[in-house]
Design goal:
This protein has a six-stranded mixed sheet, sandwiched between helices. It has five helices and six strands, in the order ββαββααβαβα. A hairpin with a 3-residue loop joins β3 and β4. The protein is an alpha/beta fold and about 210 residues long.
Length: about 210
């Protein structure tokens, strides 16, 4: 398996947890959750989408492994911007690269719960026989919305993250973009999966 790091645009800390997988031709889901809330800003949003576009362009299309990509962006609410796109040709990959580069910036609050819920929806129902699902969650702040009566914004996010792993997500890595110490601790403790999280920055991916 070849793993591609798309972290060159990150200013902050990365939290990574790895799950070993077997050495044969694999079908892998790659999910990317991108924060487009007000604190990100339009300029840094452009850096984020450009970085992800460049990384997607490195996904091999002629190798033994198959990659299925889903992308969710979020602020006050989340949207599924790429839904189970199988990178099976250069044309398909180029189309996704172009689409990601053009994703619009919205600003708004920070809704972890809807972000993870939408990603679970995006990854579900694949027509492929999936060997592993990897999700990367990029944010620069704590959740500021998404809760309900008796449930805090953060607990709602934790519940949605747990629903994602219960649904079959094998690994959740975190991009903490300039986050505070308290937000970093929350991301490591409650969102990175499986634990314990590796705080090495930059993370060295195993082959």
């Amino acid at each position: 398996m070849k793993q591609v790091s798309w972290k060159s645009w990150i200013v902050g800390v990365a939290f990574m947890a790895m799950t070993p997988i077997s050495a044969h031709a694999l079908t892998m889901q790659l999910g990317f959750i991108l924060d487009r809330s007000g604190s990100i800003g339009s300029s840094d949003w452009g850096i984020i989408t450009s970085g992800l576009s460049n990384a997607i362009n490195l996904i091999p299309v002629a190798g033994v492994d198959t990659y299925e990509v889903s992308i969710v962006t979020f602020a006050s609410t989340a949207t599924i911007d790429a839904n189970k796109v199988v990178i099976d040709s250069v044309a398909t990959r180029t189309g996704l690269v172009t689409a990601v580069a053009s994703y619009g910036y919205s600003g708004g609050a920070t809704n972890y719960a809807d972000a993870f819920t939408k990603m679970t929806t995006a990854l579900s129902g694949s027509t492929l026989s999936v060997d592993a699902s990897f999700v990367n969650f990029a944010t620069d702040g704590a959740p500021t919305t998404g809760g309900s009566s008796g449930i805090s914004n953060n607990q709602a996010g934790i519940n949605a993250r747990k629903a994602a792993t219960d649904a079959g997500v094998d690994n959740i890595s975190i991009e903490g973009i300039g986050v505070t110490a308290s937000t970093a601790s929350n991301l490591v403790t409650n969102y990175c999966f499986p634990g314990p999280c590796d705080l090495t920055s930059p993370y060295t991916f195993p082959t």
